[in-house]
Every structure is written in structure tokens, then in C-alpha cells.
TrEMBL record, chains A, B:
Catalyzes the conversion of L-aspartate-beta-semialdehyde (L-Asa) to L-homoserine (L-Hse), the third step in the biosynthesis of threonine and methionine from aspartate. This is Homoserine dehydrogenase. GO terms for molecular function: homoserine dehydrogenase activity; NADP binding. Its EC number is 1.1.1.3.
């Protein structure tokens, strides 16, 4: 049923993003009302402690610690508190009451998004979350709506600005990983405890959301194969450049047979790939669809103001739907594709091997690889230096399953002529 | 009022895009019905001549030459016939009857979009046109909806695949312009008559649509300052690389004082700019917004299947709105900003001058530039070769109005020590 009069908006949380959302709601009230077709009335801002100062934009009269009571008075609930609980319970309460929900909570959606999407569907209400993936970049709406008549086959994303900044620093300055992380911390691009970023947890949550969205299937962060950047060396990063690549932490969600595989790991990307030029703390999501072909969405992945911009865009859409008495396109016909392990992913490996410099070594390496049904694209000597009777080889394979490739590496390790496996990296985007 | 039963869809035009739209409507009927919340019924396809073969996807029974009669039987009208008339009259007829319209017609919207947007608003019906700008790239919906709570300050686009392919060829192969155009024609990236592309008419139409959208103001292609690529030489393209730039044909729409300036011309972009790595026939639109910061949207700018993907996404949205009995967010609160001439645009020039190699020449050049209130960022000798007593200088200015910069160039031309102005190019993206 269509709302009469103003659309009542509740904001849950008043941190960096919440404060910005409130400021924009107040400052752009007239503009927003024109777009929605009715005024937006900010009915309250739920906080843990009403005595903390909130800045000039937030009217202290609007603050309340009674989040549940606030939810019950709203047509549109904006959840920007973060964390799993009580955000999850409050969102479900709002949905059950038929309120539309806008959330920026990647942790919650990564963990339990499918439950919330299903609840919103069952209640016939909107749940929008543009700000939860890649910050200000409009990616959710294009995937849900613009590509509604298409079939997505693969999504590749740089969705964590901290790790992208760190890898970029290593590439441009030759810094080691620890040093680059320290610098990112000093500049505010990394948290004091960078674990969630550098170990790939943040990227895995976003990968789960992107996969759910792109493939209409239930994916949670626990389903995502995850490798962080902590084992990467300055040498790995520098060598990537010599072979025409850059090293990026990628979130990848793709169809694989009758299922989907979702993974987060460092990978080599060719320098000509559009994702390769995504620098510093920027994010980008590269989408491959059957009809549309290749698409990329690029922008600020984090920050209070960019995130608030994405939240406001969602508020306008769901408030407009309230005014006309409906909800946006239905996107949750869950295909329920099975989520497969990384072993099934089709990828390519670059393996650096230190071998004894004897006749016939290359033939032995070639044979081990061929025994796994894998073929080699290139072999080159990776370093000019000579180490006694050792040589370092850089082997790049053709595409094969991750299972076959990792079994190949294990067998190479056992080969008597192989002194050491120096590094193993996946190659994507080709 | 909400539609009961199936949503009746009429397709006007059955060329490359129309055929693909029909194919996708038929093949994905079940999927589309689930998303819309009601089946889509294809009630007819308007063509000029029903006897032309249309391929397997198009049921000959659905073909009709009575486009008006077909429009009158539809809830959603998909216009993919192209050209100004009769497309314009048919779209207005559909809007007046309260049907939602989806169009891919950049020529029509570039010429007379504001009339159509206003008509749709007055009738309270949807007019969607994702496919009319940058083909398959979702740009209209992000700008209209995701950025609804933000303020766009500038849009920079590579919106013509033909010219981008040609400039890319010149850069990578050293070909001259004529040769690169010929090759683009052979590969199907350029028409037999490439005027609309190389003279910037196509880009100007898209610039007008983007400007209308971004600034809620009435801009038509006739308001757009337009320069094509025909005067660019292999030398211009090669020299760009030596100064860390690439040459691109850009469509630029930006706020300027209390108005907007819209222009299409070749420009030097720094190689690190995200638009610089847009290669071949791809398109991209770079958006600067106050809260969201920098965003970029990248993908296929043309082609039957990518364009059909964008059309289908729009069909799902407007059909869904029909089912729930409303229309999408209101975007046409026309700000009616005045459209200013290119003279007011703030930009930078790179000017290559052949000068007499005499003492004091640089001081004279510097003085002429300063007399216009312009300052110089760098001066360098542009060629190692010596031409008798001549030297070639490459002067890059700081930002100033186009009016001041072009007056500066005119005065430099009159300076006795200046033999010749060899080239003048704008520098953008910094």
C-alpha cells in the first residue's frame, strides 16, 4: 500500500557513515523530496550512548538508545551500525514490519545475507545494500537491474582498498610487505589490526555478497576459499612487472559446471587488463556477462562520504517505492546453485622452481606437468644470477583445474632435480 | 494503476538490436516473468516490410507494419528502430497513452531528449534509455538512482568506439589517421561513411544525453561544442606517449559557475588516468561527484547483443513498475542550468610552436601568455632535430578558460619570433 504523507526514515548507528547520512538527509531534504515524490522525515538516530558528541549535523533531540522502538516507527530503516548483532535482529524486525531496509553492513551480509534476502522477499519489502560492496561504486543496482535480462558468468573484483594500496606501494616503491602495511596504517588506509584486510576476510565477505547477487544463489563468507597477501614478497611483486603483470588481491565468483566457485587470493593480472590499472585505495568490479560482454565498475571502496552517497541513493529508491506502494524488481529467485570448492576452479599457475642445472631437467619437469593433464605455456629462466649449479625457472601453465595444478606442484616438489619451489601464484584475467 | 495479467510488450524495429531483443524476450521468458512478477507478452514487432527474413527467433506472425496500432496495444514499448522520425512520434504516442517506453535511440535523445523526458514526467510514466549511452554499460541507472543523493560535478566519457579504436591503432602501430580509419572499416568498427563518428556527431549526441542526466538540465546535441579527430596526425599521437599521455576523443559535461559546459574534442589524458587504459572499441564514462568521489563505468559501447542486454534490463524495470502500478524515481526536476559555450570551459593547452632560435624568444612567449592571465606549467624542446635556426617548443599551460587560452594562441601566432603553431591540444583529467 502506498504511503501517505512523509516517508519516515530511521538511522541505526551514528559513526562516520551514519553522521554523513544524517547530514546529507538534512542538507538535501528538498532535493530528495522532489526525487522521492514525498518528504523524507528523519524520525530518529539509534545510538549506544546519547551523550557522545555527534557534530553539528545531528540534532541531539533525534538520538535514542531504543533502536527497536525506533525501527517500529519507520517506513525506511537505514542500518549503518555494522557488526552482526544487534544489526541482524533489527533488520529482521524492520522487514517483518514491512519497512524497507538499506544497509551498508558487509560483515552481516557476507555472513548471513541469504537469510535476510529471503526474509525481505517473503515480506514483499525492499532490502538494498549498495554501500556494502565496493563502497560508493554502483554495482548492486547494475547487477540486479541493468543486467536483469542477461546471464553473468564471472565477477572479478578488487574489493579491498587496504590490500590494493599495500600491493601498489610494494610495486611502485619496492617496499616489503611489512613496511607497506606500516605505511598504510600511518596514512589511515589500514587499521591498527590489519588482519581482516590482509588475510582476506573483508574481501571474502564482499565476494560472498557479489556471488549471491550475480548468481542468485546462497553464498556466505564461510563458502569462500580465502588466501591473504601475507606471504607475498617484494620479489614476487617486482617479478610480476618483468613478465608484464601486476599482483592484485582478487575476489572471484564464477560459474563452474553446474555450480559456482568463489575465491579470494592474490593473482597475477596482465598489465593490459582493466583491473590492472586500479591503483591505491580504489576498488573495481569486473563483470563478464553473456550478452553485455565485459563491464567494469570503478571508484572509492570506502570512506564515510562515498559510502553515505551510496546509502542515500538506496534510500531514494526504496522511499520512492514506498510512495508508489511497491518494491523494486524481484531478484531472489534463488537458483540455489551448488557452491564448489576451489579445487574445481579453472585457473593458471605461475610456478618458480629452483632446479639443478643438469641435462634433461626440463624434460622431467615437462613430464610431471603432462602427467597431470596440464600443459605448459612458457618456461623461462627467471633470474640472470647463477647459484652454483642451480637455475631458477619460471613456468606458466595453460588453464586447468586448481586441483590438477596443485597436485602438479606437489609432484614437482618431490622431483629429485627440483631443489625448491620458490613461489606459486595464480594467473587470472586471460 | 497496477497491471493485471501479462505485461504487453511491443518492439518497434527489427534490425540487429531488435532481433536480439526479441530473441532474449522469447528465450528468457520464464526468468523475466519471475523478475517482473508477471509474464511478458510480446504483442508485436513493427517493421517497414514484413517480407524481409528476420531469423529464427522472430515469429513472422508477430510482424506488423502498423506501428501506431501496435503502440496502442502495449503496456511497454521498446523503440529500437533508430532515427528521429517516426521514432519520436511513436514514443510520444506511447507516453500519452501511459505506456512505459524503453529506447536505445541516441540520435533522437541527443536531438530532442528533453521534450521526451518532460512528456514522460507529465504523463507519470517511465522512459528508460540505458542502451542509448555507452551501449551495454549501466550508466543511466547509476547516475539517476545510485547517485540520487549526491551532486555530480563532471562527466568525462569515451563514448565512441570507432574513434577510440582508430586512436588506439595510431598509438600502437604508428599508422596515420586515414590508414587507421580504413582498417577500422575493414574490421567492421567503422561505417563506410565514418563522418558521424570521426567528426564527433555521435559523441556529441551522447554527451547531450549524459549532460541532461547528470545535471537535470536540458541539453541537446546542438548545444555541444564539437571537434572531431580528423586533424590529428600520427605525430600528435606518438608525441603524447613521450610526455606520458594518450590522445582520446572525450565527451565532457561539467558544471561551470552557475551553468554547464558540454564539449566533445580530442584531448591529452595522463597515462595513469583510468580512462587512458580504455582500449580498442570499448567505452567508459568517468564521473566526479561530491560525495562519491571518482567513479568509472566501462564496457562495450555498441553491438547488437550488448545493446539488447541493456534494453532488456530496462524492460524488466519498467515492466516491474507496471506490475506494482508506479514508476521509478523522479529524475526530471529540471534544474534548467544555462548551457554555456566552450569559451567558459576551464582546461589546459599543450601548444607546439616552431620559433626562431634567438636569445630572448622564451621571454617573449612567456610574456604573451602572462598577458592573458595564463601561466605556463612546462616548456620543453619537443624535437631533437634542428631546422636551420628554428627550434620546436612544447608549452603546457596551467588551467585557464578556453577563451583565454585560445586568445593566447592567436597572439602567439602573431609574434614575429613564432614561425608556426604546429599543434594545439587540450589536456584533461588532471
Amino acid at each position: 500500500m502506498a504511503t501517505r504523507g512523509p516517508v519516515r526514515v530511521a538511522v541505526l548507528g551514528c559513526g562516520v557513515v551514519g553522521t554523513e547520512v544524517v547530514r546529507l538527509l538534512v542538507q538535501q531534504a528538498e532535493d530528495l523530496a522532489a526525487r522521492v515524490g514525498a518528504p523524507l522525515e528523519l524520525v530518529g538516530v539509534a545510538v549506544r550512548d546519547t551523550s557522545t558528541p555527534r557534530g553539528a549535523a545531528v540534532d541531539p533531540e533525534l538520538l535514542t538508545t531504543d533502536a527497536e522502538g525506533l525501527v517500529d516507527r519507520a517506513d525506511v530503516v537505514v542500518e549503518v551500525m555494522g557488526g552482526v548483532e544487534p544489526a541482524r535482529a533489527l533488520i529482521l524486525r524492520a522487514i517483518e514490519r514491512g519497512a524497507a531496509v538499506v544497509t551498508a553492513n558487509k560483515e552481516l551480509l557476507g555472513k548471513d545475507g541469504p537469510t535476510l534476502y529471503a526474509a525481505a522477499d517473503a515480506a514483499g519489502t525492499d532490502l538494498y545494500f549498495e554501500a556494502a560492496v565496493a563502497g560508493a561504486i554502483p554495482i548492486v543496482r547494475p547487477v540486479r537491474e541493468s543486467l536483469a535480462g542477461d546471464r553473468i558468468t564471472r565477477v572479478l573484483g578488487i574489493v579491498n582498498g587496504t590490500t590494493n594500496y599495500v600491493l601498489d606501494q610494494m610495486a611502485t616503491s619496492g617496499q616489503g610487505l611489512q613496511e607497506a602495511v606500516r605505511q598504510a596504517q600511518e596514512l589511515g588506509f589500514a587499521e591498527a589490526d590489519p588482519t581482516a584486510d590482509v588475510e582476506g576476510y573483508d574481501a571474502a565477505a564482499k565476494a560472498a555478497i557479489l556471488a549471491s547477487l550475480a548468481f542468485h544463489t546462497r553464498v556466505s563468507a564461510a563458502d569462500v576459499h580465502r588466501e591473504g597477501i601475507m606471504n607475498l614478497t617484494a620479489d614476487d611483486v617486482a617479478r610480476a612487472a618483468t613478465t608484464g603483470h601486476v599482483l592484485k588481491l582478487l575476489a572471484i565468483a564464477e560459474r563452474s559446471g553446474d555450480g559456482v566457485v568463489v575465491r579470494v587470493h592474490p593473482a597475477l593480472l596482465p598489465q593490459w587488463h582493466p583491473l590492472a590499472s586500479v591503483r591505491g585505495s580504489f576498488n573495481a568490479v569486473f563483470v563478464e556477462a553473456e550478452a553485455a560482454g565485459e563491464l567494469m565498475f570503478y571508484g572509492r571502496g570506502a570512506g564515510g562520504t562515498p559510502t553515505a552517497s551510496a546509502v542515500l541513493g538506496d534510500v531514494v529508491t526504496v522511499a520512492r517505492n514506498k510512495v508508489i506502494g511497491g518494491k523494486g524488481p524481484i531478484e531472489s529467485r534463488y537458483a540455489e546453485l551448488p557452491v564448489r570448492g576451489v579445487a574445481e576452479a579453472v585457473t593458471r599457475y605461475q610456478v618458480e622452481l629452483r632446479v639443478r642445472d643438469l641435462p634433461g631437467v626440463l624434460a622431467q619437469v615437462w613430464q610431471v606437468v603432462a602427467d597431470h593433464g596440464v600443459s605448459i605455456e612458457t618456461v623461462r629462466q627467471s633470474r640472470a644470477e647463477v647459484y652454483g649449479d642451480h637455475a631458477d625457472l619460471l613456468v606458466v601453465t595453460h588453464a586447468a583445474t586448481d586441483e590438477a595444478l596443485s597436485a602438479t606442484v606437489a609432484d614437482l616438489q618431490d622431483l629429485p632435480v627440483v631443489v625448491k619451489i620458490l613461489s606459486v601464484l595464480r594467473v587470472e584475467g586471460v
